[in-house]
Prior knowledge:
Shape: elongated
Strand content: 35-45%
Structural class: mainly beta
Amino acid sequence: MKRIVLFAIAISVIAMNSYSQYLETTKYNLGVHYSSCSYDPGTFTSYPTFDVAKITTDSYLDIAVGQNLQTCSYGGYWYGIQRDNNGTGQYWSGPDFFTEWTSGSNSKQITNAVFGQLRPGSEYLDLAIPRIHQTEIYRNNDGSGISGPTPAQTLSGQALDAAWGPFDQWDGSHDLAVTSGTEVRIYKNLVNGYVSSSPYATFTNISASKVLFAEMSTSTYPTSNSKAELITANGSTLSVWLNNNADGLSLLTSLNVSENITSIAVGDINNDGYNDVVVAYANYVPSGYVGAYLNNRDGSLNTNAIWTASTSGGHQVAIGDLGKPGDSTRNDGWNDIVVVGRYAIINVFINQTSGSYFTSSPQQTTSFSWWGSTRKAVLADVQNMGGLSVIYATNPAWYIGDPTNYGFIALHRHTGNPAPAPPKNLNWTVATGNHPLLTWAGNTERDIAWYQIYRSMNSTSNWVLKATVGASITSYTDNEVTYEPNPKNAVHAYYHVKAVDNVSNASDQSNIIDVPVNGLLSKRAGASETLPNSYALAEAYPNPFNPSTQLEFDLPEEGFVSLNVFDVLGRKVGELANDFHAAGYHSATWNASNVASGVYFARFTVTDEFGKLKFSKIKKLILNK
């Protein structure tokens, strides 16, 4: 058996612009080849492909790599990510196993590698490898890696590409679409670790070189009704096919770009909750193009691109949140675009959040002395730091005449540890006990530690931290207040949520919601209908007293109230308040039946959620028995 060589090297950037840098200018190469291969520029080809997902029990993402060598063939190689010395997870190690076929066999080439949810409820993904002659499925061994080298299941028939997705309504698992070029076959997930051995549905009317499942006609926020549409590319034609309740496909959109489509990426560009589509297209010349098409919120696409750009060598496109315009230190929840092309030119377009969303010129460009073209590009958080790195596969530059110029997988890390994006889709309903129940969409960053829930009373300026919940929790019930359906009796409770990562970077706030509630504005009898303008502690009444007296205090905003009574020696003899209070007019009564006659002092303090003192006051009390 021939020896495998795995190497990782760093190559310096030779060209970049002066904009804020979102991706590091250092490139880490993962190259794999047989050391004993003879080099033949006339017949040698090396076309690597890959996919990234969590397949082991550690917290880091893993990678599956497939590569084809005609002069010394080998098939699928699987690599698990490992941490480097400072724990940032920038390299991959491996292989764990590989498969091999007859040397020089073009009829068995790997065409893609795609991870999917084969088994419901498993957090570890499984793998499909489409090949020219068949599709192979490899199951995850419950977090110990992909089982092999023998596939768990083999599906016969030509496979130019494959994609996982919920063809029927979401049941916790993915179905598999495979294109032969002249037809698309759907294999239904049997929810037992296998897909159907024969196609559940075959669409002979769909010719495609590329297939992709994506939620198009339903919101990107998951529901029990979520299902995926099929997106295909054939030459210069992009098509979206409506999923007719898992029993058929009908054409929603067909549009033509000027050249051959080389890559498709899906993501929400305008933050309306629906996936949009970005395509890269080129006729395999140094120049390339990229265009973005918005979803009409029914799954169909506006056939007029909202944005296009010319990209030097642009062949592969990926979508994800790399940061704010001009600021790579904070994710903003708006998807950006990375285009990787011939000559290893990387163009980064940052979403401007309005207008056509992207500028004609990239916000960051890097290029290297590499003459091969690219085959696939993915944005993924391989460092577990919340920042997306770009991983891409390159074809060989065989005509340079250097036998080390094999195709490889390359990685550019994100430039830092950005603060999380604001949580999206904050909404509310009424829970048991008539309390407001808040829900939001969980963040996609891999380093989220918790969420903070803030509330403000009758305004959107006096925010108080009400609760902190873990990263896996995306709901909160406010048991301090109750929903008030009658607007005449209601006051306003405003809420927003922030995401916090594991180094305490907090996101910007989510959208603000307004909940009508009853009783948030605490009132004494005869008090004003409006909030107080300032803090106050009134004189006790009656005073002198026996045995009880009342103390009234005003809060212009909610805060932590401490109201205690001390004797002349400084000993606490009464506790009247020691918790958060809503903005408004409050009162507390001290019953002094268990203490002797004398002089006492009531100490009143208000602090915010961080313990900062907002107000303090002391009043003298006289008890006469």
